[in-house]
Specification:
four-stranded antiparallel sheet, about 110 residues, Alpha-Beta Plaits, 6 strands, alpha+beta
């Protein structure tokens, strides 16, 4: 098994969800993360005061799948989040030794 972690722009979550649903993936974890990009300055506003930061709010989508599904899902996620902008998304793939459900399915 492999764990796919995709860092995606907040605006693209619906596209990623649709792409994963089309691939019949029903389990995923979504977290809010802040990514650092030295090349992209972002202007933000807090209580009327503007400031610049290199931290961008993005989402991390985590999925654990069988090895045979990895290539297909990487293509689907990449197609869903692709933009010409630098630093808009990343995908990490790591091995998973074992996955255990805390609530097994009823017999």
């Amino acid at each position: 098994m492999k764990k796919i972690e995709a860092i995606v722009p907040v605006d693209n979550l619906a596209l990623v969800e649709t792409a994963l649903a089309n691939a019949e993936i029903i389990d995923m974890t979504v977290s809010t993360v802040r990514t650092y990009n030295r090349q992209m300055m972002q202007i933000q506003r807090y209580r009327g005061v503007e400031f610049t930061t290199n931290l961008m709010s993005q989402l991390k989508v985590e999925i654990v799948v069988e090895n045979s599904q990895v290539d297909l899902l990487v293509v689907k996620i990449t197609d869903a989040i692709w933009t010409p902008e630098l630093g808009e998304g990343k995908i990490y793939i790591t091995p998973v030794e074992q996955a255990i459900r805390s609530c097994p399915a009823k017999k």
